[in-house]
Amino acid sequence: MTRALEGITVVAVEQAVAAPYASSRLADAGARVIKVERPEGDFARNYDELVQGQSAYFVWLNRGKESICLDLTLEEDRAVLDAMVVSADVFIQNLKPGSISKLGFGSTDLRKRFPRLITCDISGFGDVGAHSHLKAYDLIVQAETGLCAITGTAHGPARVGVSVCDISAGMTALNAILQALFKRERTGEGASI
């Protein structure tokens, strides 16, 4: 496998599927990915115990990454994250909308401080609009988009078996990050995704 992203550092404040999918593919391509988890860990660690007592989703999405647990409500832990972002090429987050900004790591602020940084914010309903403040899980997005209505059985609609919306969001984020890295090579400027 080609390691085209060797030398690239990614800091990912991530959980569940969408952001971890994007960052896992960056790690597969050779980037150093540092996953930041809350003190109790990414809740995806507890989805199941299929891989030698660990969650299959968690192992699939987080292999090849470094990991650190930080309590970002604490000033000293925010200082640790800040020190990591200083040397990062990419910053990815998929916390509840508005959460990362309240902690001082919003894309607008980071891009002012680090113009070469590529920031990627993944949310279920975007930055603006009536639902932008809501958390989103794959099942919610499948239901909201009507996907559940075209799957299932005679007894009613059902969720598609895999987290297809989260995986699609992660693939889309990955594509945008790679485009931004390419653009930065040409212009020296980062991007907000």
Overview of the structural elements:
With 193 residues, the protein is of the alpha/beta class. The protein has a single domain (9-126, 170-192), classed as Rossmann fold, CATH 3.40.50. Helix content is 38%, strand content 13%. It has seven helices and six strands; from the N terminus they run E-H-E-H-E-H-E-H-H-E-H-H-E. The chain has helices spanning 18-28, 56-62, 75-86, 99-102, 107-113, 138-145, 164-187, and strands spanning 9-13, 32-37, 66-69, 90-93, 118-121, 191-192. The protein has a six-stranded parallel β-sheet, sandwiched between helices. Helix 2 (56-62) links the parallel strand 2 and strand 3. It is globular and about 55 Å long. The mean pLDDT is 93.
Summary of the model, kept short:
With 193 residues, the protein is an alpha/beta fold. It is 38% helix and 13% strand.
Span of the ends, CA to CA? 27 Å
Structural class: alpha/beta
- Reading the helices and strands in chain order gives EHEHEHEHHEHHE
**What is the average per-residue confidence, as pLDDT, rounded to a whole number?**
93
Relative helix content: 25-40%
Write down the CATH class: Alpha Beta
The portion of residues forming beta strands comes to 5-15%
Poorly predicted ranges: none
User: What is the assigned CATH homologous superfamily?
Assistant: Crotonobetainyl-coa:carnitine coa-transferase, domain 1
The CATH topology comes to Rossmann fold
Note the total helix count.
Answer: 7
CATH architecture: 3-Layer(aba) Sandwich
Mass-distribution shape: globular
Q: How many runs of DSSP E, i.e. beta strands? A: 6
The biggest sheet, with number of strands, parallel, antiparallel or mixed sense and barrel status, is:
6 strands, parallel
Radius of gyration: 17 Å
* Order of strands, widest sheet: 3-2-1-4-5-6
Kindly give the count of domains.
1
